[in-house]
Every structure is written in structure tokens, then in C-alpha cells.
Amino acid sequence: MKKSLVCAFVILMITSAYSQIQENVNSLKHFQDTVFQSNLHDLKKEAVLNDPERILSTTHRDKNGYRVVEELWQGWDGSNWLNNRKYIYSYNSDDLLLERIMEFWIDNQWTIMGRLLYSYNNDGNVTEIVEEAYIDGEWDNSSLFSHFYDNNGLMTEKRYQYWINSDWVNDHRFLFVYDGENCIEESYEFWESEQWNYNYKILSTFNENNYLVEIINLNWENIEWLNNSKYTYTYDNENLLQEKLIELWYNDNWIVSSRNLYSYDENLNLIENLRQILTTTNWEDQSINSFDYDENQNQIEWMYQSYNSSGELRNFFRYTNTFDENDNEIIKIREDWEDEQWVNDDRRIFSYENFTELTEFILAEIPMTNFPNPFNPTTSIEFSIQLDSNINLSIFNIKGQKIKTLANNEFNSGHHSIIWNGDDENNKPVSSSVYFYRLNVNGKTESVKKCLLLK
User: Fold this and answer.
1) Which domain range does residue 386 map to?
2) Whole-structure pTM over 0.90, yes or no?
3) For residues 323 and 329, is the Cβ–Cβ distance under 8 A?
């Protein structure tokens, strides 16, 4: 299932992430204003169609086997946290997300606004997401998101339709082309005049290590594809992203516009993303995204700062994250910098359940660890099982790509130790980085842990 969701366009797109969060926050504030101005019937339709969190990953589970069952959003009124909305998640026995219900806090009570219903194929890939609004005690269709896959389980099309006059009507779609498992082309088309029409296209190039090295964005204008912008990615010897260079197409030439520079700590966590613009004479700092982590490598803060016209670095916003003893993120707070101090804006509170307690095999009884960690060049992965089971133990990189399968066969009950030599399926050494090892028991129960290879 995971390889169908891996599309390398998302590699460290911090600037794009910031834009999306800004859009989400603006949408949230919009709802806060309109809740008391619109009638409930219209508001429910609007809430479903404009919900910034409606297109979700189909698994809401952390690396330790806990999954999100509720997500509460609250806004700060200057002195107190006030309820705004919440999401309630339900899953099937295979731990696939089946339903996500959205409720708004209206007149001091929770009011159901809409929901998403998920369908899957036999490979566990989501095939349909139906979006419905809850109106006058009934569920009304709102939109439909259909996913199509090739024989390798790679998504080839993502189609968006809306429910109009008792029928699904096309709106837009994304088409994907692959080289191996790398998505090398993504195109966006919109439905108009009873046909699909080009809008824009993204071309991606990867190096021999399957890392993204170039993106070219093209727009469809006057019956031809025209260059718009280009991103070039540079990595160090450890395959850590060092620079993203942004160029714009102007007068039939690529003109350097800006760049992002990335820095990491000793655990290979991203700690700074510096954005610079190119002036007529030199590079000028524009903004900084900085990140901080706790001892378990959980990201506890993300702060965005920008430079003003005088070259002074000014705080803009920050997110602080709180984790429980299981490394589950339980609180995310956004603060804005106002009047030379941090002021609360909104927060999200997450509730979890250990889904493994609902299955035949309980992860709490399948401890798994590796030693040493960090390691170079080998580490021993150890786990215990109570019953004879089919075990799959695999290694993944930070992009979610499978690096190597260490075991895929029957194991007797008891304690087991498997050595990973820091290599891939072709027995070639991999570079220093964070890797994940996943234990799959009888095709259902999974435990995922993180390890660090340092050379």
C-alpha cells in the first residue's frame, strides 16, 4: 500500500507546507466568522466543500502502533481556548481508515457537519473517498475522489467529482507517470465543455539513488506547454538535501530567483531551512524555518521568521508540539508574534488508541529494538513472538521506499535476532541516514521503529 502513496514531490517542501498551513489557518478563521452568520443548512455544505483537512492519508497511526481516534481543534479568544471543530476516526479490522466524521461547535454543542467514507481494493489501496454533508438528519453526497492504480499498485489517476443534480460531475483530475517507482510526471486537467483540458504539468528527474534532483513546472497556454519554474535539488555525500534552487522562465531563459539552504543536527534531523532571494549583487536572506527536537527525536517546535526591509529577523509564527510517553503527538499549538510576544492562535488535541489491542497479536507483547543505535555498519534487530507466525521484517528509507527485506518466512515462537548490515537488496552499502525497520506479523500487525546509520 505504501509504495502507491510514495510520490517524491513532497521531499522537504517546507515552503509549500507553510503555504498550505496558512491556507488551512485562514480557512479555520473563516469558519469561525461564518458559523454565526450563515444558516446551518448552507454552512454544512460550505464546511464540507472547504474543509482543509478533507483529503487525508488513509492511515492515522504513529510508529508505535497507536492510531488517532479523535482530533480536536480549538481557537484562542484572548483568554480561553474555545472549541471550533473535531474529527472522529474509525477503522476496520485491517487498520484501514473507514470513516472520518467532522463536527463543529455551534451553540455550545457539537453539530455533525460532514464525513468521509473510504473504500479500498484487495491490495489495501484507497479507491474511493466519498464526501457527504449531514443535512436535516440525512447524509447528502458532496464530492467523490477516485483513485486508479496500475498493476504495480502505483497510482495513475486521482479524479475529483462533485454531486450535482443527482449525478457525479467531473471537476478535475491528476495523472501520474512513473519510471520504476519514481513519479516523473504529474499533470493537472480540469473538466470543461464535456472534455478534459490541460492546465499544468510537473516533470521530475531523479538520480541513480532515486533522489529527486529536478522539477520543471509547465503551464498549458495557447495550445502548447510553456516553462514556468524549475527547482534543482543538491545533496551531500550522505544524500541529505543541501539546497533547493528556484528558477523562473523569463524571455526564453531560466533566471535564478531564490534558493533554500538546509542544515541538520548530529541525528540528521532538519534544524534549519533558510530561504534567500537573489538580488542584482548577492544572495539576500528572506526567511528561516527552524526546528527543534526532544531526546526521542520528536519535533517539538517549528518556528518561522522573516527578514524585514531593514534586514532585521522578525518572528512570525511557531508551532509547539507535545508528546506523551509513547511518542504520540497529543497537542499542537500555533502561536503568532504580536506586540513583541507570542500569542496563542489555535491548537489541536489528539486522542489515540492502541489498535493492536484489538487484534489477535498484541504489539505490547512483541517488543522490538535494535542495538547498537546509532550503528556502523551493522545492527541487530531483536523481537519476540508468543506464537508461531509468518514474519516480514523490512527496512525503509526516510522517503518510505523499501531498502531491503531481512526476513519473510515462518518463525517459531520465542526471541529472535536478525542482523542488518547497512546494505540494500543488492548488498550495496547504504549512506548515513535515518532508516525505519518494520515488523509485520501474519500480514496484519505491524511495529515500526527508527534507527540511525552513522558512518
Assistant:
1) 361-453
2) no
3) yes
pLDDT digits (tens, 9 = 90+) for 215-264: 999 999 989 999 999 999 999 988 899 999 999 999 999 999 999 999 99
The reply to whether 51 and 191 lie within a common domain is yes
Residue 7: CB partners within 8 Å, gap ≥ 6? Answer: 155, 176, 183, 186
Strand partners, 299: 293
Are 347 and 366 contained in the same domain?
no
Is-contact 304 318, C-beta < 8 A? yes
Tell me the C-alpha distance between 386 and 369, whole Å. 16
pLDDT band at 446 (very low <50, low <70, confident <90, very high): low
Q: SS3 for 115?
A: strand
Task: Measure the CA–CA gap between 350 and 281, rounded to whole angstroms.
Answer: 48
Three cell numbers, residue 163: 454531486
pLDDT value, residue 296:
87
The last residue of a domain, from among 356, 382, 413: 356
Cell 521568521 belongs to which residue?
305
Q: What are phi and psi of 357, to 5 degrees?
A: -70, -15
Rounded Cα–Cα distance for residues 382 and 370 (Å): 6
Provide the CATH number for the domain around residue 373.
Answer: 2.60.40.4070
Domain boundary (307, 336, 356) is at 356
Dist. CA 197–CA 191, nearest whole Å: 6
Instruction: Check whether residue 238 and residue 181 sit in a common domain.
Output: yes
- Cα 453 from Cα 373, distance rounded (Å): 8
pLDDT exceeds cutoff 50 at 423: yes
Q: Report d(CA 156, CA 127) in Å as an integer.
A: 12
Of 443, 349, 262, give the one whose Cα is nearest residue 86. 349
Count of the separate structural domains present in the chain: 2
Q: Are 147 and 56 in contact (CB under 8 A)?
A: no
Give me the DSSP letters along 253-319.
Answer: EEEEEEEEEEEE-TT--EEEEEEEEE-SSSEEEEEEEEEEE-TT--EEEEEEEEE-TTS-EEEEEEE
